[in-house]
Predict the structure.
Amino acid sequence: MLRWLRHLYGRMESAILDHGLYRPGRLLLVMVGILAVRGLGDDIFAAFNDRYADFIKVALSYSHIFTETLASKAYLNHWPYIFRLYLLDNPYDLSAHNLSLPDDQADVTNLHLPPFASVLYLSCAHLIAATNPLVAMAVFWGAYLIGGWGVARMARAHFGVSRQCGWFILFAALACYPVLWMLSRGNLAGGYSGLLTLGWLATAVSGRGRWAGWVMLALSVNLRPEPALLVLIELLGSGSLRARFCRMAIPGAMSVALAAIAFPIAHALYPLYTLDNVRRGLRIYHYRYIVSDMGDEWNASLFLWAKGVLMLMDVRPRYNETLAQALELCGSAALLLAIWGAWARRITLPVLVFLLTALPAMFVPVYSYYHIVAFVAVLALLVADLERNPPRRGDRRLPLLIVTVLVMSPLGGAYSNGLIDSLLMLGGTLYGLAPLARDAFRALGASPISAPVS
């Protein structure tokens, strides 16, 4: 099996180098081609039975904002049917009765959201109440498109790449498959987080505009927590150890300050948003999305494989706490190895960024496909780095480029796509960690166990 994989990769590497498929223009055509071929053979957006739901439906769940809208019945004449349905039959149950039920009986709420994200959704709710959902979509979806254009220009300037590479970054930010997924599903919090992360990464690479980059990272982390791990790339930076730790601490302090400011604002706009209710919302989310099966569809986490094994064994529930802890332990060990590699400067920046993006994707219990927008930053960095330093045979960036492109392409259906993506990310992670593991063994004065020769 291993020999077959090496042979397959050798063929792919030869094709990429011979035809220059790592170059921005040609790689863009490859990704568009995969998207087109899959789109012709299947409805790659068939899963979007809740179009725009992760933003509009959540905003419409704040029922106290829409009392006048419901009383006047203004929505009957001006709202598309799907939004009327989201208003009148909203699944987020915020009643006192629901919040008093045991976790395994309560319906899902919106109380699990971070404070800054809650303020964002509440702002959308007030805008809908003052106008209508289509105006809110124009504002918030338009903000993403304008932001994507601005961040792509910013990334091109900081990465120091050609105009063609800038167009590729713009495509990745606005029109690659995970972004289209995200825009259709309306998970704009994840989308904004991905753009902000790319902006921060660009400043970290160039060393210019660091304060602006740190603000962007703080905003990103308050929308999605996973980008917080990326501050570890500062270990590869210049300066003393103290200076590098300061560059990690500053965006961390900004993130905490922003959350502390956003929480009372969210509470003022939404009195139910209290610390006790947030903890309750998180427990309900854990049961509904992790222990139960609400988060299984399009999940790119390795936890879905664990649930599948338990399903084949006819074990109920499909979530097993011991197995979950074992996966979390593996993820923590991989993260510690990556940190050691950065500390010892035995890892390159593109590999480290890939690892710090892939590890939470694999080991967070629910990582829906629209969160793969986080890989936009990985792809932009890899393509920019390959343009500045063209690859040769054996270049360790090429396997990561292949994995990233495949993860960001439509490969399967509602369940198979996530399973395939998690295996791809696992393969890329093992590839990135293998040299570090060998170096760690040597540093400890031991030798790794050699694989038997077949």
